[in-house]
Structures
1.
Amino acid sequence: MQQHNNHIRHIKNDRLETINPGYRGNKTIKGRFANGDELYNPDFSNVLKWQLSQNPQRQQKKQDNYTPPLLENSDFLYDDRDMLVWLGHASFFLRLSGVTFLTDPALYDIPMLKRRVGTPCPPEELRNIDFLLLSHGHRDHLDKKSVQTIYQGNPQVKALAPLRAGDILRSIDPNLPYQEAGWFQKYDLVPDHVEVYFMPASHWHRRGLLDMNKVLWGSFVIKTSTQTIYFAGDTGFAPHFEKIEELLGPMDVCIMPIGAYKPSFLMQKSHMNPHEAVKAYNQLRGGLFVPMHYGTFDLSDEPPSEPVRLLEQIAASGMLQGLRVPAIGEPVLLTDDI
């Protein structure tokens, strides 16, 4: 038993403040991050099972050519109002109190996955970005070419990343400044009038053959004097939503993933379906609900229009207040009375 415990460590960035009292840091077992306390290794026999089984919605999916509406627009880059702009998948442009953020940049086709819809403007035109928020290392959230493009056009940009993401970032560009945080930690690179916290998510990491769970994953909370924004990253439904609300209060805006949930035997531990996303939003005592992680890449078995259709049905039934489904490139203004 003693032998086993030697493999367990709790790590965090010792330079940063931790806001969860008594939290020792993220648990690693033999150098691999746990999902909270449990080691979660996606069962790759499930991937095989998925590839060998027939999608019961195969015909429906084939006939469903839905893509999110796209508004070609770059005006938001030069507007000084607080806003969020969806760029497709989990990529958002956010401006809060004069500080600009770009979440999970995947602005091009990625290896083995083509974008099904474009970006509001060519990625090379994205300017005035202060921080990259990187929730985890999967290639549809941390895309090498996208990060290189943003850094070339925004030499002032800094990356806020999970623990042990530094090696990935150095391989993308050795000069890109970054800071790593563990769960419940507050980054200190951000100007004082804006707070950014790295918070839990229920997910996993793999980018190569031998790096399973070697890099942490998580979500972000951004707080200003007037509002609190939650960006969920990729996550399954788990107890962390209640914990986040307990520590940081109700979320004025929740940017929530709603796609890539079928088949559930493969996806349930790492992605949420629309019902789970709404349940999480209600636990966060959310204001505005902005969906993401649907329609841009084909990652799963559900037809592309299903996530938004289900979400709109849930809203119509009264279980979801505050739904806002923007087009890609459509600014959502974040005023004090959202």
Note: DSSP finds nine helices and 17 strands in the chain.
2.
Amino acid sequence: MTWVALALIAVATIPAADLLSRARWTWRTPRIAIILWQALGLAWGLATIGALLGFALQPYGDGVIGGLVALPGGASLSLPRQAALLAGMALAGSLIGMLLLAGVRVVRARARHRALLTLIAHRGGKGTLVVDHPAAAAYCLPGVRSRVVISAGTLELLDSAELDAVLAHEFAHARERHDLVLLPFTSLPRTGLVARMLDSVALLIEMTADDRALQNRPAKELATALLRFATAPSAGAPACALSALPEGGPVMARVQRLLHPVAQPLTIKAMALTSAVILTAAPLLLWTL
């Protein structure tokens, strides 16, 4: 029965997410690890919703999609199957609703912060906005027209090479729209395993931006800048932004990774990508059976 297979996938994603949140091989290939995280989250959602709907619509014998099509004119369902149908639809609606609500909140927060920046910031060099604040701060405010903001304290703290490395990191966030990668995870309640998932994905995003910043420049510049940020008085970035040094982030892990890079074997990368494809395709296939 397809709903049983979907239920097994949904259950299996939970320990898989726990293992992935504790893994360290992901630091060697953060982009692929992010893809794997996205596939794991999508697989959980599709499998859980599909298992509930598949059980509810089993009497129609047409699978999840076929059962949904036949539902309006079909026979009445038993009480347990009606409950499963309502639970599946409620879960789908709540996940979509939380994602939309999180998106609206972020857009509004960024609009307010942009309005604030027009009052307190002035244009600096290299396409940045500068805020006259003595504490160190550097962050990207994503959007259709992304902004990279730095403080006066940052200009005093870093030399020109270190500043260029930090700006390259922030512009990487802006170009690759890492905020959209993070949004589905931030839309979920931050508790237990979900909190560890969010922390893991957030760190991988920072490592991805670190890698982008290393193009055509030595790793020592960014590593030194991160250490300076970590030891200097700093101003926290707004929650709607992406900071070079998130509050409470594992700085030394990033610094060690920059200074002592270790290549990830191609077999590990291939296995991770294959797992991501299977995680995404299997629930979708089971929905159609």
Note: The chain has a mean pLDDT of 91.
